[in-house]
Design a protein that fits this description.
Radius of gyration: 14 Å
Number of strands: 2
Structural class: mainly alpha
Largest sheet: 2 strands, antiparallel
Number of domains: 1
Strand order of the largest sheet: 1-2
Low-confidence stretches: none
Order of helices and strands: HHHHEE
Mean pLDDT: 88
CATH topology: Glutaredoxin
CATH class: Alpha Beta
Length: about 100
């Protein structure tokens, strides 16, 4: 919620997507990863119990990691802020400034 307040204070139009309610498609998630300029594993919340119980210690390729995130949206790091072709994981919230 704190990061959201930061965005609201920018006085720029924005849209919130709750991807638990409206999950990413595979192509959307790949696009977000591309905009973030990271590897899929860098978007995973590796301390989540789902990850530690099902995936930790396994040798997964990028496609398998993306599939895990699609099947378990809770694994996706958040909040993600996208501005055009650029994106950041807004932790800490000041990271938002990198794409404005």
């Amino acid at each position: 919620r704190e990061g959201l307040c930061e965005i609201e204070n920018l006085n720029q139009p924005f849209e919130i997507r709750k991807y638990f309610d409206e999950p990413f498609s595979e192509s959307e998630l790949k696009e977000v990863i591309q905009k973030l300029k990271i590897k899929p594993i860098d978007l995973v919340r590796t301390k989540e119990s789902i990850w530690t119980e099902k995936y930790k210690g396994k040798e997964l390729n990028d496609e398998e990691i993306i599939k895990a995130m699609l099947e378990n949206p809770k694994l996706i790091e958040r909040p993600i802020v996208i501005n055009g072709n650029r994106a950041v994981i807004a932790r800490p919230k000041e990271k938002i400034n990198e794409i404005l």
